[in-house]
Amino acid sequence: MKTQFSALTFLLACFATKAASVSITDIQGNSFLSPLVGQFVEGIVTAKGTSGFWIQSPPSDDVRVSNGLSIFTSTKTILAQVNLGDLVSLNGFVNEFHTDATVLSVTEIGSPSNITVLSSNNTVTPIVLGVDRSPPTQLYSALDTGPNGFLSLPGNTSQVEAVNVPLQPSLYSLDFWESLEGQLVTVPNSTVINFQNSFGEIWAYGEWPVTGKNSRGGLTLTANLVGQVDANPETIIIGSPLDGTKNPKVTIGTKLTTITGVIQYQFGFYYIMPLTAPAIVSSLPAASPTTITPNSTDACVVVIGYYNVENLSSTSPSHINAIATHIAQFLRTPDLVFVQEIQDNNGPTECDLGVAR
Ligand SMILES: *[C@@H]1O[C@H](CO)[C@@H](O)[C@H](O)[C@H]1NC(C)=O
Ligand SMILES: *[C@@H]1O[C@H](CO)[C@@H](O)[C@H](O)[C@H]1NC(C)=O
Ligand SMILES: *[C@@H]1O[C@H](CO)[C@@H](O)[C@H](O)[C@H]1NC(C)=O
Ligand SMILES: *[C@@H]1O[C@H](CO)[C@@H](O)[C@H](O)[C@H]1NC(C)=O
Ligand SMILES: *[C@@H]1O[C@H](CO)[C@@H](O)[C@H](O)[C@H]1NC(C)=O
Ligand SMILES: *[C@@H]1O[C@H](CO)[C@@H](O)[C@H](O)[C@H]1NC(C)=O
Fold this sequence. Notes:
Layout: H1 2-16, H2 24-28, E1 40-49, E2 52-56, E3 68-72, H3 76-79, E4 87-97, E5 106-119, E6 127-128, H4 159-163, H5 173-178, E7 184-187, E8 191-192, E9 202-205, E10 236-238, E11 255-256, E12 259-266, E13 269-274, E14 280-282, E15 304-312, H6 317-329, E16 336-342
Parallel strand pairs: 3-5, 6-7, 10-13, 15-16
Antiparallel strand pairs: 1-2, 1-4, 2-3, 4-5, 7-12, 8-9, 9-10, 11-14, 12-13
The structure holds 2-acetamido-2-deoxy-beta-D-glucopyranose (6 copies).
Residues 130-131, 188-189, 207 line the site of one 2-acetamido-2-deoxy-beta-D-glucopyranose.
Keywords: Signal
Protein name: Endonuclease/exonuclease/phosphatase domain-containing protein
Signal peptide: 1-21
């Protein structure tokens, strides 16, 4: 793939001096990889962060084709030239940027130059997810065949690009999110399905149909329409807000205010990069589950429990006491407990072979 693309880059680079303008929709195309490497493109600035900005042009009639585009640059003087709402023209090369071979690439313009602001204060109306378009809820990609679906090995997303089939966004969620790559969207009233990660990023779904919704608002893995595990691909990650504000701290079931931002693929997942941080509308109480293991009086039944004791060490009695209470009360003292993340004889030091003490 790489070799093929270098050849294409070189070929179209030769045409770049002719300064023929190409449209964003021509660059995005209807499949995972761009059919073009570009030269001269125009669009309205919809979003701006510290590592680039996004532009958008009038939409294509083809729902598979995104009309948004990422312009990659972390050069402060270039970023200072553009503001949200500017109609800009610029020169640059279309890249299919890969962080590594096993993930999808991002269609982007690298090294933008000759940036001209043609007009200011233009507005771009975001498409509203759940109203204008909704993600498929069950199937992830056309390559997830067989009984294990998306869990099948080698689980190599980039193979979707090796075949580079036209997108089927009404059926497969990977295709759905790709068809919105770089585009400004609104995610109304989202519900959080996990704690934020260490970067403050949050998995969530908006006000659109979902499958496997449980009593807390999380999404349980159920069987999909062809009997595979449903990957719940109707979810998206809320990335770090582009204006430098911080996402709130959340738990499963937290409801957030409506978010507007651009769809961006990074680190192996599709993200919405919010223009600004959402606020919390409501959160559920952090109550522990009341029943996990059943009581059994049958001598032939062994009850097995499992607990991630999170860096448990002999030097932290309060942590030990809390875990002991949880095992007794919430796990109801199983016959056998598997623990994970317990410190060994050399304490917190990482080593290949742990020795218990
Ligand atoms: C720079 O952009 C302008 C349009 O804003 C265009 O007319 C011109 O050809 C571009 N220059 C080059 C070297 O491509
Ligand atoms: C854009 O809008 C802002 C705020 O309404 C205004 O201050 C500014 O003058 C406008 N710029 C142009 C170029 O119209
Ligand atoms: C992933 O797929 C690509 C393209 O088919 C292939 O070159 C690469 O070796 C695969 N990597 C893994 C880890 O399977
Ligand atoms: C978001 O929630 C508000 C308040 O509950 C509601 O009025 C609005 O219709 C919701 N938006 C969408 C797009 O469903
Ligand atoms: C199960 O065992 C716990 C702890 O011994 C006890 O509090 C609870 O009442 C028991 N529940 C049932 C249904 O027997
Ligand atoms: C684990 O605990 C040790 C102290 O025993 C502490 O130094 C270390 O930072 C902890 N690691 C994490 C990841 O919390």
